Amino acid sequence: MCGIVGYVGEKKCTPILLNGLKNLEYRGYDSAGIAVLEKNSIQIRKAKGRVKNLEELMQKDLCEGTIGIAHTRWATHGKPSKENAHPHEDNSHSFALVHNGIIENYKQLRRFLKEQDYTFYSETDTEVIPNLIHYYYTKQEKTKKGFLQAVALACKKLEGSFAILVLCKDFPKTIILARRNSPLVVGKGENEYYIASDMPAILEYTRDFYFLEDNEITLLEKDSIDFFDFDLDKHKKELVHSGLNRHASSKNGYQDFMLKEIEEQPQAIFETLQKEIELPLSRKEISSFSQIYIVACGTAMHAGLVGKTCIESFCKIPTFVEIASEFRYRNPLVDSDTLCIFISQSGETADTIAALKLAKQKGAKTIAISNVMGSSLVREADMYFYTYAGPEIAVASTKAYTSQVCLLCMIAISLAKQLKTTSKNELESFKKELLQLPQEIESILDNKDSIQLLAKQLYLEKDMFFLGRGIDYATCLEASLKLKEISYIHSEAYPAGELKHGPIALIESNTAVVGILTEETLLDKTISNLQEVMARGAKIFVVTNQVLPENNFDFIFSVPKTNRFLSPILSIVPFQLFSYYIAKEKDLDIDKPRNLAKSVTVE
Ligand code: G6P
After folding, report:
1. What is the CATH number of the domain that holds 431?
2. Which of 91, 214, 261, 523 is most buried, by CB atoms within 10 Å?
3. Is 591 a domain residue?
4. Residue 215: which residues within 8 A CB-CB, separation 6 or more?
5. Is the separation of the CB atoms in 378 and 368 below 8 Å?
6. Phi then psi for 323, rounded to 5 degrees?
7. Which atom of ligand 1 is nearest to the CA of 397?
8. What is the atom index within ligand 1 of the atom nearest the CA of 596?
9. 246 pLDDT tier (thresholds 50, 70, 90)
10. Which of 482, 471, 472 has the alpha carbon at shortest distance from 516?
11. Can you give the residue range of the structural domain that contains 370?
12. Is the CB of 404 under 6 A from ligand 1?
């Protein structure tokens, strides 16, 4: 989805802005643009399509300034086109602005501005903002304070979500930033500041960041930064040092981020397991929870399905997993006796944030799990825990997923300890098994060549079925999602016992069926289901940590045996690799699959 980059300092800003936009390409977008302040004019360049189109344009048509703003747009209001691309200007060409988010009352604002003789040249919701700023600016003194006041007044009129950067030709040293429900970070350098909607865009320049809050406005020059609320009351803000290394958001020799991130899983899990999980809740409070909800979207929801099994077993509290976009609109039965856990890699998924706000309104205690420091989800929640997977750039989530499952298991341990619902010994030995995971994943990665060979055999398949029971069904859902997302092969995940109730009609000679077999007590039952499809001509591919009885499956991949609740962390790895190698065979854009965005910040 949309991305923002900005720079103010002593260097030429164009290469920095273009590089920042390239670092954000993974988020998915359809056009890009830049505005640079040069003396007393604002130079704007835009291009439809990839950032490289903008770069080519800018090689012919240079912008030399040291202060600028840039944007990648993912169309919401109005088709992908040069006219709709950001930055947008006001009618007098005094202001240029980039915007992430959606202005929900843009139609009213547009009507109001048209009555004041403003004209609109794009179909976007965004174009109302620079014109509204201009409208208020005409009523102010033409000072920096007047500029700030105009932006603040405009922000107060906006409904919806926004992160904006604004340039004004009257103030060639200044950028104004503001946000509500859409992230913005400012990175500090020597006599320079870098701005971005996402930290990875600027991580190679600095590791010292200010995180903007909702309803906050910032006046930025190369050697000063001031924070205000929308009433222009000034406040101080802490500079936060990020422990992420500079290469965390580069490919570092890999052809694709996805493979790099799959291989980073041992490290991501190790880092996540290093932090102690202490819930800031008393035993009495924890005992009062009659139910737990885990709410998330996509892969994060699948992590929730695994977490549910572990939490229910250790804590004996009924636990429900829901898709955030459903939860938020169905008036769920959630109250002060409910603990709600929200999972989001980015911490910016609109539906997950809205679901969290709803749960809070209903009096539930809320926990956020996110991979992004200072993300919106974390800010909204009563308590939060981070996964320490490092920036995940590929759209298809891998290391964030396995880290989320680990973190949920740690939360289960912490709750169970307080509740005394599981013996200390059992929890201790579970912890030990958690700590074995990094090296067990390494051993799976060592065998990736056999997965690559399998992918070479199967990459032309049109459909695939994933079957499993119990906790393996959760892995089936995630494995099937990975395959769809990046290889565009249709696939379905089914609880193996449900197959006879419909989907078996789809099985014909040579249909590819994958079985996941880690549930020891359900092994025979799942094998019987696999035999049933084999009898109808299906080819069977199996991932297991069990010793299987004699069989004639077409392919068996063994993963190390671990605790039942941790097996999904190991058994998903071959499927991440499988999807990756299939997409590679098909020569697809693995890190940026069609139609998908890394972080879905709109409904
Ligand atoms: C998008 C991504 C998925 C991701 C989901 C939730 O759909 O393409 O990979 O699982 O959003 O993202 P979140 O950042 O909330 O975990």
Report:
1. 3.40.50.10490
2. 261
3. no
4. 155, 179, 180, 229, 230
5. yes
6. -75, 130
7. 9
8. 8
9. low
10. 472
11. 257-443
12. no
Distance, CA 338 to ligand 1 centroid (Å)?
A: 25
Whether residue 599 is contained in a domain is answered as: no
| 251 vs 270: CA distance, rounded Å | 21
528 close to 499: Cβ distance less than 8 angstroms:
no
Residue to substitute in 258, 262, 297 for testing ligand 1 pocket (most ligand atoms within 8 angstroms of CB): 297
The length of the chain in residues reads 603
Give counts: helices (H), strands (E), the chain: 18, 25
- The per-residue pLDDT for 64 is 87
- 81-90, 148-157, 301-310, 317-326: segment of lowest average pLDDT: 81-90
What distance in Å separates the CA atoms of residue 512 and residue 510, rounded to the nearest whole number?
6
Helix H segments across 381-423? 399-419
pLDDT-derived band at 601, boundaries 50, 70, 90: confident
**Nearest in space to 175 (alpha carbons), one of 21, 12, 16, 37:** 37
% of the chain exceeding 90 in pLDDT:
81
**Best residue for ligand 1 mutational test, from 397, 592, 595, 601 (most atoms within 8 Å of Cβ):** 397
Please state the rounded mean pLDDT for residues 112-131.
95
Residue 417 alpha carbon to ligand 1 centre in Å = 31
600 domain residue, yes or no: no
Cβ of residue 562 lying under 6 Å from some atom of ligand 1: no
Is residue 495 a part of any domain in this protein?
A: yes
Per-residue pLDDT for 197 more than 80? yes
- The band of 74, judged by pLDDT with boundaries at 50, 70 and 90, is confident
Residues 119 and 166 reside in one and the same domain: yes
Give per-residue pLDDT as tens, 367-385.
Answer: 999 999 888 899 899 999 9
Pocket of ligand 1 contains residue 375 by CB under 6 Å: no
pLDDT of residue 389: 95
Q: Are residues 371 and 460 in the same domain?
A: no
CA separation for the pair 86, 51 (Å, rounded): 13
* Separation of CA 333 and ligand 1 centre (Å): 25
DSSP of 354-389: HHHHHHHHTT-EEEEEESSTT-HHHHHSSEEEE---
Q: Is 414 in the pocket of ligand 1 (CB under 6 A)?
A: no
Average pLDDT over residues 82-103: 94
Residue 481 Cβ < 6 Å to ligand 1: no
Q: Which residue has the higher pLDDT, 28 or 24?
A: 24
- In this predicted structure, the answer to whether residue 500 has a pLDDT above a threshold of 90 is no
Residue where the block lists tokens 């009563």: 382
Token match 């885990």: residue? 294
- For the chain, the domain total comes to 3
User: Is 2 designated active site?
Assistant: yes
Statement to judge: residues 209 and 61 lie in one domain = yes
Which CATH number is 90's domain given? Answer: 3.60.20.10
Tell me how far apart the alpha carbons of residues 31 and 469 are, in angstroms, rounded to a whole number.
44
The predicted pLDDT at position 37 comes to 95
Regarding the beta carbon of 346 and ligand 1, being less than 6 Å apart is answered yes
- Per-residue model confidence as pLDDT tens digits over 441-482: 999 999 999 999 999 999 999 999 999 999 999 999 999 999
Contact 198, 245 (CB under 8 A): no
